């Protein structure tokens, strides 16, 4: 198995495809996806474009859908929800399809949607993702951070490092066996440095600071938790994720 890390969707090679692609947007899209599915959402359908989301979701029964739209950290007008994992509970999300568009996370998923296996990862689901990858034994894995509008994000990289570290710990293999590129090795160093201070790291991260300015401290606390959900959101049809 070879693990490659790309910090942003823009870094993903134009040519070729991995056996398994993993999208990460710790703050907050992939954390929210996991929270929604853990709360019993039927599925999550992702869109790059808000107008497409609004049009497609119109075809769905009103009581069976939730429309989640985020731009610049805030809720998009016309949507039911923004992009907070704390929005999801069995009462609100159970049995519903989440139609979702966010600034970077859903765009990241769109970039890798043609890989044979596409999953999402967050710190909250890290161990479940490690177990999934080990059970599937893909030859090549692309781990893709969502970043922020084309730039590197600390929180996505530390999550990638946590996943790679988990695979190394479980298999006893070395970087020589597993690392597909230098970024994969650097991410593990970042994780080892910050593993006991993940919430502090969220506070230093530029997007963490953006969310704090929007009064989302509770979201940072939620997103910084490691291994609290034993689920792996997985794409079952193009642009639609479930368990
Ligand atoms: O960029 C994204 O996809 C979002 O996760 C950003 S936010 O955390 O909702 O602001």
TrEMBL record:
Pfam family, one: 2-ph_phosp
UniProt entry keywords in alphabetical sequence: Hydrolase, Magnesium
Disordered as annotated region, ranges: 64-97
Superkingdom of origin organism: Bacteria
Biased composition (Basic and acidic residues): 64-78
Enzyme class: hydrolase
EC number(s) reported in the record: 3.1.3.71
Cofactor(s) essential for the protein: Mg(2+)
Catalyzed reactions per annotation: (2R)-O-phospho-3-sulfolactate + H2O = (2R)-3-sulfolactate + phosphate
Similarity comment text for this entry: Belongs to the ComB family.
Protein name (database record): Probable 2-phosphosulfolactate phosphatase
Species for this entry: Leptolyngbya subtilissima DQ-A4
């Amino acid at each position: 198995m070879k693990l490659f890390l790309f910090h942003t969707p823009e870094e993903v090679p134009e040519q070729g495809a991995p056996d398994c692609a993993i999208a990460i947007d710790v703050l907050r899209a992939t954390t929210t996806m996991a929270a929604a599915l853990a709360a019993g959402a039927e599925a999550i359908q992702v869109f790059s474009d808000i107008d497409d989301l609004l049009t497609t979701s119109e075809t769905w029964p009103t009581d069976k859908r939730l429309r989640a739209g985020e731009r610049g950290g805030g809720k998009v007008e016309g949507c039911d929800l923004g992009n907070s994992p704390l929005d999801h509970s069995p009462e609100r999300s159970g049995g519903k399809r989440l139609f979702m568009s966010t600034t970077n996370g859903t765009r990241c998923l769109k970039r890798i949607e043609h890989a044979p296996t596409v999953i999402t990862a967050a710190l909250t689901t890290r161990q479940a993702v490690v177990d999934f990858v080990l059970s599937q034994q893909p030859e090549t894995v692309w781990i893709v951070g969502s970043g922020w509008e084309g730039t590197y994000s600390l929180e996505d990289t530390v999550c990638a490092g946590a996943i790679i570290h988990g695979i190394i710990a479980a298999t006893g293999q070395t970087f020589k066996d597993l690392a597909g590129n230098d970024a994969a090795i650097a991410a593990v160093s970042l994780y080892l440095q910050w593993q006991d201070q993940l919430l502090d790291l969220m506070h230093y991260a530029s997007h963490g600071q953006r969310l704090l300015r929007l009064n989302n401290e509770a979201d940072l606390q939620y997103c910084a938790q490691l291994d609290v959900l034993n689920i792996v959101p997985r794409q079952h049809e193009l642009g639609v994720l479930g368990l």
